[in-house]
Amino acid sequence: MAQAGIDVEVQVHEYNAWSEKVGTKRDFILEMQGGFMGPDPAALAKRFGTGQASNYAAYSSAEFDSLCEQGAATGDQGKRAEYYKKAQALLAKDLPYVPIVTFAGYDANRSDYINLPIDGTGKWGWAEFTYTDLAAK
Fold this sequence. Notes:
One of its GO terms (molecular function) is peptide transmembrane transporter activity. This is Solute-binding protein family 5 domain-containing protein. It comes from bioreactor metagenome. Helices cover 34% and strands 3% of the residues. It is built from four helices and two strands, in the order ααααββ. The chain has helices at residues 15-24, 43-48, 62-73, 77-94; strands at residues 113-114, 133-134. The radius of gyration is 19 Å and the shape is extended. The protein is mainly α.
């Protein structure tokens, strides 16, 4: 940022202080956050949908909201792709939002556990162990 002539003061907060400053007071100019955003693009609505709790920039677009609603309402993967691609194009045009990093998380578990919330094949549900069990021997 300095190379672009922009003076930045980085403030790092523990979660509750960050939540109050950013989520409640909306007291920020530039905000960086992490969080689960997929693999289903329906998560876009939670981050950018009008009135959503995680929409910290208060972005609002009736067209975006409608595209996300239509995408979530159909099981046709081709149609879903069309809706979400259009929604993402709106975000690219409308928002100063720059995804800068992604990550991979690895969990080691005993092989006799079944129904783990993270199975490495596309099921991702951190902290949801309701149906985790030991395999019958």
